[in-house]
Amino acid sequence: MNWRSLRRWVLWGPVVLYALLIFHFSSQSNPLPALTSLVWDKALHTTEYAGFALLICRALRGEGLRWWRSITLAVILASVYAASDEWHQFFVPQRDADVADWAADVIGATAGSSLYRLINEVIKLEAGGWRPGAGGQGPEAGG
Question: Most Cβ neighbours (<10 Å): which of 7, 44, 59, 138?
Answer without folding.
Answer: 59
